[in-house]
Amino acid sequence: MRLAKSLFILVLLVLIALPYAGAQQVSKKQDIAVFNLSYSDYSIPSGALGMVDQSIQNVFIELGRFNIFGVQQRLKSRDIDTFINTIKKIKEENMEVPEEVRLGEETFTEADFNRLVGSFIVVIPVMSYYNVYEEGSNYKAEIQTTFTFIKVDEARAFASFQIDTSGTGENSQQAVKAAVDAIPMQLQYEVRSIEEFKLKTGIIDIVGREYIMQFGRDMGVQVGDEYVSTVTQILPSGYERVNETGLFVIKKVDHEISTAVSIFRDEKPNIGDQLVEVPRIGFNAMLYAHLLQDNAPDGIENRFVIGLQATGSRGFYDWRPIAGVEVPLGDSFLIWFPVISYVGAEYHLRLGRLSITPSAAVGVGTLVPILGDDEFRENFKILASFGGTAKLSVDYLLNRDTYLNLYAGYSAYFGTFGDFYWDGDLLTNPADIQGSFVGAGITFKL
Across the chain, what does the average pLDDT equal? Predict the structure, then answer.
């Protein structure tokens, strides 16, 4: 009787656990072949092509999660389907690769094509738009690049996206370089967002309140990266549902392991818990507004200020760089459009969902005239003030991607010129502000 009761309890426990059963997934480095950039009928200097080729190769190298071999040929977008069909035919008919394979304008040797067929994934970048033109006294370059990812073993394209970048410079070469330099950040984010490339790992040790996970610099993990813990539930219908149970942020990165802290969790994390990468571009964007009591010469004046702040997140943990712009509204707003630009740093003290963030920044105020003719508005921009801000913010993580911010601080921007008259009215410099403020904002993790 006792044995039967024990067996019954064991079976019951197994049945309860079955809907949540699932082996931990751990990513492995994947073999990929990256074609050189191809282009349509645009007149593109070879130097520009070389810069883009190198920039793309560097992104896949820095990601760390791939074994890469480069392909010197340039495969145009109209030849991608032919490439897929050729692979499919070779695999389905189990035929030998001929001594030469011609795809569009490119010829592959048997050895080259065998390397492609032997790789797990093929990446084909195509420059779908390219333009360089004069804009005022500078040049502007616009580049549009499409990336197609092909699973060779299945002979099908499984992902595709487009990246648009632009840049300006004193000459066309500088403009093109600026546009090319903008590719890596977007490309890294897009590649990391593809489901097949997201890092999947697990907790391998727990030290106090810190969690050790497999993978480090060897797989491209960076400080500030985020991971969610997940549990896979098998529904009665047989479908799987992945439930997120917690959020972790990387605090320290070694060669093969990383240390993370928990931001929130439904239950206590354990060794063996599944972790999945949360791709981010690498910065947070905060929209905010505050009421500032300006210590004006004729008494305290309330000023309403709106702003946008960007905070670096990928590559940073506690100390993080900030940059932003804000507009203080006042009596002369219809005449002058005041813009304060600033840079600085913050210290992000994490207390679970709650965090306390002191920050400091220095900046300059510029007045852009609204009234007057086109030439006046174009040429008459005034460096109106200089100064800085100190602030203390209390932030609460509403969900995985959004913070609510409440803050207070003090701004001191000293004007470079005094009061002036407009149509007989005495107006103060709207970028000359000194006073305390309180406000609120919302931050989106991008």
Answer: 84
Residue with tokens 């210590």: 295
Give the separation between CA 154 and CA 156, rounded to whole angstroms.
6
Helix (H, G, I), strand (E, B) or coil at 260: strand
Residue 264 in contact with residue 353, Cβ under 8 Å?
A: yes
Q: Rounded to an integer, what distance in angstroms lies between the CA atom of residue 188 and that of residue 277? A: 13
Number of Cβ within a 10 Å radius of residue 291: 13
- Per-residue pLDDT for 126 more than 80? yes
With residues binned 3-state (H G I as helix, E B as strand, rest as coil), the percentages for the chain, rounded to 5, are 20, 55, 25
> Would strands 38-39 and 121-135 be described as parallel, antiparallel, or unpaired?
parallel
Structure tokens at 127: 């420059």
Burial of 200 (0-12, 13-18, 19+ CB in 10 A): middle
Contact (CB, 8 A) for 174 and 166: no
pLDDT digits (tens, 9 = 90+) for 380-428: 567 788 999 999 999 999 999 999 999 999 999 988 876 555 555 556 6
Q: What is the pLDDT of residue 12?
A: 40
Residue 16 has φ and ψ, to the nearest 5°, of -70, -40
Tokens (6 digits) for 386: 């200089």
CA terminus-to-terminus distance, the chain: 60
- How many Å apart are CA 148 and CA 82, to the nearest integer? 14
Which of 10-24, 76-90, 364-378 has the highest mean predicted lDDT (pLDDT)?
76-90
Residue 116: in which H helix or E strand, if any?
helix 110-118
Model-level pTM? 0.84
CB 203 within 8 A of CB 245: no
- Residue 157: which of 105, 121, 113 has the closest Cα? 121
Supply the DSSP string of 176-200, one letter for each residue.
HHHHHHTHHHHHHHHHHHSGGGS-E
Q: How many residues does the chain have?
A: 446
Comparing CA positions, the residue from 408, 411, 414 lying closest to residue 326 is 411
Q: What's the pLDDT score for residue 300?
A: 62
